[in-house]
């Protein structure tokens, strides 16, 4: 199964809740499991973000190549679609960039 930002956030939040409840009521096992689930969720979220960034990089590079080939060959359609794909790749990179 590929990593998911949504699933990662859910597990991270559930882990925080379990950790807090465990800490509040002295349930050290629950606290420990919550800490582990939070870490696993955070790891999944970061993996999904890295995957999205890599996909954006690929789209950006392929789009730039298509745009250049279209410009050199005079194929305006290829140049335009390449520019669109490059911009979409840039947007995907921005969306998945670590803040």
Automatic annotation (TrEMBL):
Basic and acidic residues compositional bias, start-end: 29-41, 85-99
Domain of life: Eukaryota
InterPro entries: YjbJ_sf
Region described as Disordered: spans on this chain: 1-43, 68-99
Transmembrane segments: none
Coiled-coil intervals, chain numbering: none
Compositional bias segments (type: Polar residues): 1-15, 75-84
PANTHER family linked: CHROMOSOME 1, WHOLE GENOME SHOTGUN SEQUENCE (PTHR40460), CSBD-LIKE DOMAIN-CONTAINING PROTEIN (PTHR40460:SF1)
Name of this chain's protein: Mismatched base pair and cruciform DNA recognition protein
Native species: Cylindrobasidium torrendii FP15055 ss-10
């Amino acid at each position: 199964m590929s990593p998911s930002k949504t699933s990662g956030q859910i597990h991270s939040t559930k882990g925080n809740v379990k950790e807090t409840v465990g800490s509040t009521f002295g349930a050290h096992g629950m606290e420990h499991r919550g800490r582990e689930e939070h870490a696993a969720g955070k790891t999944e979220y970061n993996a999904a973000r890295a995957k999205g960034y890599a996909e954006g990089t690929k789209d950006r590079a392929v789009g730039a190549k298509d745009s250049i080939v279209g410009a050199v060959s005079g194929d305006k359609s290829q140049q335009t679609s390449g520019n669109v794909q490059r911009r979409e790749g840039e947007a995907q990179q921005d969306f998945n960039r670590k803040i």
